[in-house]
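User: I'm designing a mutation panel for enoyl-CoA hydratase and want to avoid disrupting the core. Could you give me a predicted structure to guide residue selection? Please restate the sequence first so the numbering is unambiguous.

Assistant: Good idea. Sequence first, for numbering, then the predicted structure tokens:
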Amino acid sequence: MFQGQSIRVTKLDGDIAELCFDRKEDAINKFDKNTVEELAAAAAALKADGSIKGLLVTSAKDVFIVGADITEFGKNFQMSEEELAGWALNANQSFNAIEDLPFPTVTAINGIALGGGFEMCLSTDYRVMSDSAQVGFPEVKLGIIPGFGGTVRMPRLTGADNAIEWIAAGTQQKAAAALKVHAVDGVTPAAKLRDAALRTLSLAIEGKLDWKARREQKKGPLKLNQIESMMVFETAKGFVAGQAGPNMPAPVESVKVIQKAASKGRDDALKIEAAAFAKLAKTAVADALIGIFLNDQFLKKKAKSATKIAKPVKQAAVLGAGIMGGGIAYTSASRGTPIVMKDIAEKALDLGMNEANKLLSKEVERKRLTPEKAGKVLSSIRPVLSYDEMKGVDIIVEAVVENPKVKKSVLAEVEGIVGENTIIASNTSSISIEDLSTALKRPENFLGMHFFNPVHRMPLVEVIYASKTSKEAIASVVAYASSMGKTPIVVKNCPGFLVNRILFPYFFGFFGAIRDGADFVKVDKVMEKFGWPMGPAYLQDVVGMDTSHHVGDVLAEGYPDRMGKAPEKTALDVMYENKRFGQKNGVGFYKYETDPKGKPKKTADPESYELLKAAQPKGLVDMSDEEIMDRHMLPMIIETVRCLDDGIVETPAEADMGLIYGIGFPPFRGGALKYADSIGLPAILEKCAKFAHLGKLYEPTESMKKMAAEGKTFYSK
């Protein structure tokens, strides 16, 4: 009946038609402009055939439809707000055409159906779902709201409260949750899905299911009286705003859209959705979040290409147990790669195994793992005291104490025992990989693999190569990190690597602000308002003053022109000398006490203000919010550009994603370079000039000046 690039329609027995999504030359189905147009054409063909009694909607892929084509979205978002709203309304006519067919319709959801994919499912009268499938609306995570009728059909099917919870949270939902709120009408094992969907369709054709009433329910206004409406929406707006925070407007906007359209029929409600969708799509937040999504896809593509030359890792090992070693072992084993955990002390091995067991127990508590599966994972971690157990491993991650002499000794020792093709990676946050490689006879098999703490939560792994590291070794570690569920970013060796090299200029900006009179509590509040999960004083306490002092020394030696030791005492020096190391010993800039849940709770400590007088010759001054933000962010932006100029990373995307995944750079700002683009380089240069008296840390690079003069941006491509 119809054949396109993404959709085909065929007739089945019993005057039933099947509309199948099967995107040619692609492993997944997604909605792009062509697919939306094909949907309208397919609907027209179905309507024109007067013999059709019902429609079954299916997918030939393992997924149903993953959503809209975000790469195409980026181009559409260059339109004006009015044009974008018009585009969304026009696209909705394809979904309306399916919804308005003169016979019942059923979708068989065989796999993931997200965003536009799930909105397609909602346009049919009934939905039957595989018990392994997942559905949902992830749009708010991109700074937008559903644009293909999700805010209209979902609340009319499931009730406003359920729709708000799904849409404003942006999370994927399993089959049981979908059935519970009536987002789907049935759940069945995958093998029986088609039969179940056809049976549902037969019942509708026979009149045993009132498909016309269901359709009117979706197309009519929400059945809420004035008091119910006020209670649902006003309560939801307050709750959602609290969850989303002030910098993410899409979740609250989704509630407002559902509320505004509650008394309208489908067509008027879709106009309200389209207008709000277009408004959000033009925000800097949406631009940043969509940019992150595209950057993440770019990183995944790079990691996937590495597997072509990577050596397979069937057995891994970690040297050094403890919290870090246990975290690495857990992450490797839980993702299917068995691992040997070696230490010189039984007590350390116990600590490492306890860490892995604790993490697995939490997964069992959250019902993400069965006890049997957790036991299997734990048994794939083998604690050993002897190197003899490591002879057959493919990769070794060294995670011993952060001391170059100790690391060199351990690395040389293990190299002499393992096979000549075994890859050895050092988990270090600051020690030169080039220097460590001098201890090895096969430096081509050696590189850095910097995990961030806590290992099981932090998504980033820096893969650091030295001058003699082979491409095969780099690719193998990238592939191994990816298999662990991490996002690897390949980094050229330099002091601080990528993330710490960029983070510490931010800290130096903080120390300078304190020196010139800023109140550390106010600084934290301003930078948290900017979007950081914690301000710089609080972050110093979490990192630990001893750790920061050590990394600061490494960077001072590496970049003396801008990160060299200050002639006067800094806030860090004061805290370090007074053994106020932060959370690890209960006192830093803040004082820490354990809350009822066992977590450290901070309070401002008057003694900190007294001690900081030694690093604050002018005393406290009322520094403006703008100055605080600029003094912190400018050094970070400039150092990120220096990393690009020095070839430490290849692309702006990798630099920005390193900051987002490694240190929690505010995602809605997109990373340091995306943030610079949003302000504009000419404005950045003006700000740099204002703080030129503070030294090299605030001096823009020649490349920045050139780009500003030529009107270029970091993401101009």
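For picking mutation sites, this is relevant: The domain at 2-282 is CATH 3.90.226.10 (2-enoyl-CoA Hydratase; Chain A, domain 1). The mean pLDDT is 95.
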